[in-house]
Amino acid sequence: RPPAMLSDADTEADFQRFLRRVDDVTDLLQGLNSPDSAIRAKAIAETEKRLREPGASREEEEEESRTTVNRTLINTSGTARAEAVDADGFLAALEKDAKERAQRRRRNEQLANALKEQGNEAFRAGDFGLAIQRYSEGLEKLRDKQELYTNRAQAYLKLHEYEKAISDCEWALKCNKNNLKAYFLMGKAHLALQHFSEARQCYEKMLQIDPQKENLFKDCVKEAELEEKRVRAEERAEREVQAGNVAALSIQELLQRISSPGQDLLYYTGGIRLLAEVVTNCSGQTFFRTNNGFSILRNETVRGAFCAESRSPAEVELCVSLLLLWRAACAGDEENQRLLLAQPEVSAQLPELLSCGTAQIQRETLALISLYSEHESGRRLLLRQDLSRWLQILMAFVKSTDARAESAMNILSDLAGEERFQTQCQATFSRDVLPLFTQLLVCPQLCAQVCLAVCPGVPSPQLCFPQSFSCPRRALAADLPALLSLTQDGCPDASSPGCQQCVFAVLGLMMNLLLESNGTIQDLAVPISGRCLALLSHHDGRIVTRAIGVLSRVLPASPSAVEEVVRGGVVKKMLKFLKAGGQLTCSYAIQTLSICTKSSRRAQEELLKGDKRFQVLLKLLEAGDELTVGNAAFCLSQCLQLPGAASSLLGSRVVQLLLRQAGGDAQRTSVQQNSAIALGRLCVAEPRHIHQLRKLNGLAILNSSMKYVHST
């Protein structure tokens, strides 16, 4: 007989008695094996007492073998009674009985595993009833096998038997209180029963068990919130229908008329337009959904116009009306968005509509897709589609001179940060996008749009091109000359917002391209750094920040570029930004200074002259960003090689600051290393700093720092 549901009180009580017997026998075994003679004697006495009691039936013995605990009962045969007076005899009997039970358990476990696999095969084939039968047979063999409970619960979910699924999950949790799958499936079952609070509690338990499942937890909670929102909206809508809401009655009537066959295109177009005007709020959207509004394509005339390869003016008008209706029905309603894309004709037809060549249809299709791409939940729905073809289609709209270009680029910008979109589009990027991008460089305004779409993550450029996108990045590097020209004279009106947006976007794309070093970058390093130096006086702070960012990435490729910018006064400019700039600007600026001071003595001298007693660098040593701290320590260590630099720091907090960083626990080892080098050079150049070091008990750190000094 398969294990009964938890609602069976007798089975539950039997299960609890069963567990108590396991604990009793386990304690008895531990006592018989105890090195303490008193405990051992007590265990022997208890064993003799139990041997005098009536033995378990064979049926009970078979049932009790189905547990994970190696429970051993004393054999009640005459031989065992005779040996009971001897402790060694007891242990031998116990060992023999344990082996027999272990053998039975192994046999039952093999049978249970075989039945589990049969159940899994039936589940994969969609025969959920057979799967449940096999899992139940497996539980007959091994009643504490938690996988069988959770697998059976999953099958019950498929058959919408949610109460049974919950019961099986509870049994699984009795076997293992940290069974993640049990809580997950129980949450799904509670959600299906609209037990929203219970579902959330299950998901919270998942997160407690495994904090690394935070993304799964968020997805589950979001699903529960959406479902609760849907249910509440439909309950309100039902109350309004009962109260005779005029809009609800209008929507019902219009949908009935549109579903009637045999009418002409103009009739259906007019009905759809009227429907779009009524579905203007949450209640209207809910009425539309609950009255099967998304089944509108079942009408052959409507479906034919929507899916036609070439359309007459009347069919175009009907198609546009449909798109307007769906926009109205889906705006801000995530459940309606899901239902729309769940229609096979809609998901298959969207890319066809984008490439149909009819501007009016394209505009409305882009507007509908934008409605999805603007929000995370909508993007998830879009990403369930095959978007590899969409990239080429959307990029092609950049050539448009109307609002289609902006709409397409906004969609690309929204999707570009999604890992799945990047993966889907990787194969077609070089073939479909790069040639078009090169063509677009002749037009600054269009280039600005495409740059913003291709590199949405700046100022965190690593988000724009992951490692898997290294080939497109190398290919795009060939367009650096054209990009550079756009920052110089690509715009007829350099002060116009459009031109500034172009420069801003191009600098962002250049930051991405400069993540990889190649011959093109080395050849262009001097003109690029020169142009960036000129942009440091721009009135738009965003452009200034990106120009410094480009400098920090292009200068390592060329010593000549370093010398050029140092002659151009880059040190003085960077000090200015370090005194007044934001965190990102400071990060780029100190990185630029560290590159310059590494190879240019003139840069070191200008830094010493411009930063009196290194007040700026000392302040940066206390920054919260480890990259900034490491670069500040590096700059200081380079400048300490100059005569008088170390002496100028007497009486300052430099020893304390460097000591704190050199002996700290920063994640970046460059922080400790650069601080240790600076500390060593400081004390070598000016021994009077050693007195302060002794007061701070820092000689051990100084000694360890000397290896860095010698190695450099």
From TrEMBL:
Compositional bias annotation for Basic and acidic residues: 46-58
Gene Ontology biological-process entries: axonemal dynein complex assembly; sperm axoneme assembly
InterPro entries recorded: ARM-like (IPR011989), ARM-type_fold (IPR016024), TPR-like_helical_dom_sf (IPR011990), TPR_2 (IPR013105), TPR_rpt (IPR019734), TTC12 (IPR043195)
GO cellular component terms, semicolon-separated: centrosome; cytoplasm
TPR repeat positions: 146-179, 180-213
Ranges where the record places region Disordered: 46-75
Database matches in SMART domains: TPR
UniProt name for this protein: TTC12 protein
Source organism of this protein record: Polioptila caerulea (Blue-grey gnatcatcher)
Annotated gene: Ttc12
